[in-house]
Automatic annotation (TrEMBL):
InterPro entries cross-referenced by the UniProt entry: NTF2-like_dom_sf, SnoaL-like
Residue ranges annotated for the SnoaL-like domain, each copy included: 10-115
Entries under PANTHER family matching the protein: BLR2505 PROTEIN
Transmembrane segments: none
Protein name in UniProt: Nuclear transport factor 2 family protein
């Protein structure tokens, strides 16, 4: 898969995530996928590493907490071999009345046409304040 194919795969991942299409997202992931949300364990339960089941559970939780969709908009790309770096902005309203708007940097590793690794860098304090406080 070339750079254009990698960009298409990752773009589709964020489209399906926005649509809360759990089966669609899971179909793009390697069976041994790992998603690491950077941040210290403790005050933020989602910091740390998730496997495929953890990603499914995350998507279910987000869907249940949101009014409508959590929009995930890709902003800028850097692709080098099988490494895709993408800047993303999220926007959505939670059922608790809070507005969620975060900026992210993802490093995504592609292997054999599927997503093998996701490293997510975001404002974890905002996640805590909006989702958990």
């Amino acid at each position: 898969m070339n750079a254009a194919g990698h960009k298409q795969l990752v773009s589709r991942f964020f489209e399906l995530f926005t649509e809360s299409d759990i089966d669609g997202v899971l179909s793009l992931l390697d069976d041994d996928v790992r998603w690491r949300m950077m941040g210290q364990q403790g005050g933020l339960p989602i910091s740390g590493e998730m496997d495929k089941q953890g990603i499914k559970d995350l998507m279910i939780s987000v869907k249940e907490l949101m009014v409508g969709q959590l929009m995930m908009t890709t902003k800028a790309w850097t692709i080098d071999d099988n490494r895709v770096a993408v800047e993303v902005e999220s926007l959505g309203e939670l059922k608790n009345g809070k507005r969620y708007n975060n900026l992210y940097h993802y490093l995504i590793i592609v292997k054999d046409g599927r997503i093998e690794t996701i490293k997510e860098y975001a404002d974890t304090d905002q996640v805590r304040r909006v989702f958990f406080d």
